[in-house]
Amino acid sequence: MRAVAKQRLPQPIFDFIDGAAEDEHTLKQNESAFDDWAILPRPLNGAGTRDLSTELLGHQLRSPVLIGPTGLAGLFWPQGEVAAARAAAQRGTVYCLSHGSVCTLEQLAQAHEGPRWMQVFIYKDRGFTRELADRARAAGYQGLILTIDNQLIGKRERDLANGFAIPPRFGPSQWLAFAQKSAWWWSMRHELPRITFGNYVRESSPESVSGLAGRMASLLDPAMNWGDVDMLRKHWSGPLILKGVLHPDDASEAVRRGVDAVIVSNHGGRQVDGALASVRALPGVAEAVAGRIPVLLDGGIRRGSDIFKALALGAHAVLIGRPHLWGLAAAGQPGVEAVLDILVSELDRTMGLAGATDLDAIRQGDFLA
Ligand SMILES: Cc1cc2nc3c(=O)[nH]c(=O)nc-3n(C[C@H](O)[C@H](O)[C@H](O)COP(=O)(O)O)c2cc1C
C-alpha cells in the first residue's frame, strides 16, 4: 500500500505522510523496536477458532485496531476523511477525526454511521478547545481525544525542504509536483481550491487558507498543563482520552484526574525526534495504570504480529496512522478496508499459530520472550 501511495501521490504530499521530525530516529525505532520482543508460541493451546472482538469505552469492536487521527486526509483522496471513516465503520471499529480534517466534524458525522471520536488540542484560546468539544458532542462523537504532544509543531525537514506548509499553501513548485501525478491531480481537481482545516473556518467570517496558515502555529499553547486536562474533564462528560503519553507517571496522573484512557504515542515520530519508541514505553505505562483504564498504543504498527506484541505488553488496542493513509491514497475506502483486513487477518493467523483464542488470552498468556 505504501508503494502504491508513493506512486500515486505528488512527492511533497507523500513525504508529508511518510516523514517525521528531524533525523526520523523515533519513526524508525517505532517500527524496529517491536523486534526487541519475540513471540513464544504455545501451539497446543487449541486455538482452532479465534475471537478478535473487544469492548472499549462502551463500543463493541470487531478487532483491536482503530484508525488514529491524521490531519488533511482529504488531501490524499477526495473526501478522504469520509472514505476512511466509512471503512472503519464497515470493519466495526472506531474512526478518530483529526482537528485538522479537511471536512468539518459535522460533515463527517453526517456521512458516517459508526463509532467516532474527535481529537482536539489545547489552544491559547481555551474557549476554542471547548467549542470544538461542544460541536463534537452535538454531532454525536462518543469520545474526545486530547493530544498533548503537539503544543509546538515538530521540525519536519522533508516538509521544510518541499515547502509544504500546514495547512497547505500551493505555490509554483507544488503545482509542478502535482502535475506529475495526473491520476491524483484529476481526482482532486475540484477539491484542491478548497483544501483547508475545515473545523477552523467560521462561516460568518470565511478565512483564506494563507490567513489560516499564518494563524495556526500561534493558536497552540506550549504552556498547557494538567489544569487544562481538568478543564476538559469538567467540560466533556463522555470518554476523555489522552494521546501522547510516554511517561508512566503521566499515565498515573491521568488516571488520578479522571481520564478514561491513555494512548501511548510519540505522534508517529513527528514531534520529538529521539523520543522513546512507543512500544518500548508501553510496559511502563501499563504497569503504572495497572488495569484501571484502557491503555492504547500507536506508532509503528505494520504487521499483525506487532499488534499481538502490543497486546501481550499490556495494550487494550492499537491505532494506525500512516498505514491507513497509504491505503486511502492508494484506493480510497476499499484501500483503507484492505489495510484493516490485512492487519486483522495477520493478527488472527498469529493468534492461531501462537495459541491464543482471544485477546485476553494474549494479554495473560506469557507469550513474549
Ligand atoms: C499525516 C499525519 C497526520 C497526523 N495528524 C495528526 C493530528 O492531526 N492529530 C494527532 O493527534 N495525531 C496526528 N498524527 C499522528 C497519528 O495520530 C499517530 O499518532 C501516528 O501516525 C502513529 O504512528 P504510525 O503512523 O506509525 O501508525 C498524524 C500522523 C500522520 C502520519
How many domain regions?
Answer: 1
Q: C-alpha Rg, in Å?
A: 20 Å
How many beta strands in the DSSP annotation? 10
The distinct ligands, each listed once, are: flavin mononucleotide
- Give the helix level as a range of percent: 40-55%
Shape, principal axes of CA atoms: globular
Q: Can you tell me about this structure?
A:
This protein is of the alpha/beta class. It has one domain (2-364): TIM Barrel, CATH 3.20.20. 44% of the residues lie in helices and 11% in strands. The strands form two sheets. An eight-stranded parallel β-sheet has the order 3-10-9-8-7-6-5-4. Helix 1 (2-8) crosses helix 15, helix 4 packs parallel to helix 16 (333-354) and helix 12 packs across helix 13. The model has no long low-confidence stretch (mean pLDDT 95). The structure holds flavin mononucleotide. Flavin mononucleotide binds at residues 16-17, 30, 68-71, 98-100, 119, 147, 243, 265, 267-268, 270, 298-301, 320-322, 325.
What are the main properties of this structure?
11% strand, 369 residues, single chain, globular, alpha/beta, binds flavin mononucleotide, eight-stranded parallel beta sheet, TIM Barrel, 17 helices, 10 strands
What topology does this entry show?
Blueprint: H1 2-8, H2 11-18, H3 25-32, E1 54-56, E2 59-61, E3 65-67, H4 80-90, E4 95-97, H5 105-111, E5 116-120, H6 126-138, E6 143-147, H7 157-162, H8 172-179, H9 182-188, H10 209-219, H11 226-235, E7 240-245, H12 248-256, E8 261-264, H13 278-289, E9 295-298, H14 304-312, E10 317-320, H15 322-331, H16 333-354, H17 359-364
Parallel strand pairs: 3-10, 4-5, 5-6, 6-7, 7-8, 8-9, 9-10
Antiparallel strand pairs: 1-2
Helix pairs in contact: 1-15, 4-16, 12-13, 14-16, 15-16
Bound molecules: flavin mononucleotide (FMN).
